[in-house]
Amino acid sequence: MKKIFNIAALIATIALAQACDPMKDTYAELDINKIDRAGVREMTLELTDADYSTFKKSSGYTEKNKAFSSEDSAKILIPELLNSKYKYLEETSTINVTYNLNNVNTKMNPTVGHTLTMADYLAVNGATNGQPSVPKFTTLNSASSIIKAAEAINKTPKNGDVLQLTFAWNSKPVKDSTATVLYFDGAWAIAYTLLATDYTIMTQANSNFSSAAVANTFIPIFIANKFPYSVVEGSIQPVLYTMYNGTGNPTTTEVCLLKYVSGKWIVINGTVKYASKFAVKSGKWVPDNTIKHKLITDDYKITIAGLSKTELPTASENIAKYGNFDMRYWNDQQIEKYLGLFAGVRFPDAITDQKCELTYVTFSPSATLVKVFVKNAEGKFEIIK
Questions:
Q1: Which of 160, 190, 220 is the last residue of a domain?
Q2: Is the model's pTM score more than 0.85?
Q3: Is 215's pLDDT higher than 90?
C-alpha cells in the first residue's frame, strides 16, 4: 500500500511541475516558430481568410473583403503579418506573397511590341519533319495560334501585361497582321480596339470617351451586337478605347474588360490574384521593390553609345544588329558593363540602393539569364555578385 501512495504522489508532483512550468508558453512559441528559424530562406505564401482577419484593426476594408484595395495597401499591411508570422528569419530572407487584389482589372502595363521570329513560329506550329529547326508554317491562322504565340513570347506574364504582335496571317495572299493581347487572371485574351466608326455607332461626337462610366455602359452593348454568335460562357473580352482627359492633357488608352455571363457581356471589376515580394531588412519585413525587366530587341540598342567602338567594336556592332549577346564576341564582364549602363538609361529615376533584376538572352550558346544590379551613391548601377 505504501508503494501505491508513493507512486501516486510522484505522478501528482510531475503533473504539478508541468502545470507550473513558467517556460511552457516559450517552449510552445519556439516549437511553433522553429520552421522560421532556419536562417536565410526564400519562401512563398498565399494569404488565407484567417490571415486577412489579422488586419481587422489596421484595415477594416481588407478584413471585410478578404482583399486589398491597392498594391500600395498590400505593401503597407502585409509586413505586419510577416513580422508576426516569420519573425525569426535572417537578413535578406525573401518571401513571395500571393493575395487578393481589387480594382486592378483596368490597369495595363506598357505595351510591348514584338514581331514574330522563326523561333516563335517554331514554338507555335512545331517543326517540319526531319528539320527540327524549321517551323512547319511561318504564319498564324487562328485566334488560338495568336494566344499560343503570346504564351511562347512572354513565359512569365503578369496581370495587365500587353503584347502587340506583328505576324504573317495565313490568307490568300499571306499578309502582315497585328493583334493586341492582354494577360488577365491567368490567361491571355485578344483585345478588340475600337475604330472611329465604332465610336460613332455609340453616339460619341469624337473617337474617344471622356468618362469610364460611359465607356463601361456603352461598350458591353456594342460588343453584344458586334459579336452576337458563338460566344462561350465565361469568355473574357478586353476592349481597348481612347480616353479624353481634358484640354491640354494627352489622351490615354484604357481597357474595358468584359466577361460573358448567363448570355450577356458584363464589365468585370472583381478580385484577382496578385503577388508581391518582401524581404528582411534590418530585422524587419519590408516590400522588396526590385525592378524586374526582361530586355526586348530594342533594349539591346539603348546604350551602344556608352560602349565606344574603340572599346568593344565587334560586340557593339553585333548587338545592334541581332538584339542579343553573341557569346562568341561578348564575355561576362562586358555584358555586366553593358547592362549596368542600360539600367542607368532605362531607369533614370531609380533611387540609391534600388535593385534592378535584368533578364537577357544570349546566342551560341542560347540561354536566358538573369543578373541583379544595385544603384550606388554615385548614381551608377553595379553588379551584385
A1: 190
A2: no
A3: no
